[in-house]
Model the fold of this input.
Amino acid sequence: MTDNIYDKYKALGIDKRIYDLCDGEWSGLSDRFKAIDDVSEYNQLKVLASFQKNHISDAHLMGSTGYGYTDIGRDMLESVYADIFNTEDALVRAQITCGTHALTVALFGNLRPGDGLLYITGQPYDTMLDIIGIDKNKEAPASLREYDISYDQVELTDDGEFDYQGIRDAIKPNTKIVAIQRSKGYATRPSLSSEKIGECIRFIKSIRSDLICMVDNCYGEFVEKDEPSDYGADMCVGSLIKNPGGGLAPMGGYIVGTKKCIENASYRLTAPALGKEVGASLDINHSLYQGIFLAPNVTAGALKGALFASAVYERLGFLCTPTRDEERYDIIQSVTFGDPDRVIAFCEGIQAAAPIDSHVLPVPYAMPGYNSDVIMAAGAFVSGSSIELSADAPIKPPYAVYFQGGLTWQHVKYGIMMSVQRLYDKGLISL
Done:
């Protein structure tokens, strides 16, 4: 006789009270899930149209070695990305090691000594701090600061809006790139919609049309029907082991934008005069093509999981950003616990729900690029992939955890249940 669904959850360690709590929240999200599916369908058709427009065939799924000259699969994949993001050109490479590296390539490729970089969403993600050289009391070898590139930032307003007057005042004669971080990073501020970013880009261009507007697009791809590049961003930058890789990309990053910006970035990634002409794809083209094809659906599952997490943890009395009722512009869900033990227990639950390394216990650790100990939970098929079920948190006030990913919605649902189970087992919540 076939077991009912709870019997399966019970066998995986979920208490009936926790199952009932979570299942009750899930059943109230059907309208929101339908809206997510509608966006996913739109984006799936957009991706399919790009494949068909570019006449993708078996030959493009093959790779190259050595210098990578005449790698038609690599080159056509960049045309696919340019079409999807509505840009003139794209740089999509395995040689880009992560999102932070993609941002570094974009910045160093398009800034010169004496230029200025302006972030208008406050301080960027932790791993960018030493790349920029923000702390002038700290050595920052090979940073932008060491190349005489100045840095300024404008905070968002208290309600998460762009400070337009502050932006106007901060733009200096040497300012060349204005950077926008779409996702919240390790902050509890709202993430930003493509439309809102576009409104700010129009404002910036009205002040000086020559300014380059760059968007850190990590975690935001395919969450909406439009991307920041549809609203005039000169560059959008991200990682292939996040949304656009669809869980299949084993590595890599992307930069999409104007032809000049991409050309400059390519010279930084490889070498001047060589640019996009070199860079072997080895045998990963197949995974990158299939990953971007699956990305709209995988992103939708992760988005459902983030929404479900906010519903459950709001029910338990915790501050969630965004709330279950707010619109979503990335796949990140933050839950503020105000207590390091709860943060650690949450991450232990996510790790215990993983298909890979579920037996491993995550612990806070001093990781390179971060200014505090960080705990990371990720039992992923691709190491470090945050489009797969994962969670991470800096161990510092306000003790908020950042949850994202999930290759299937069903897996995310179980992961959230397991996180609640671990908090309950440790006596850190009551039901």
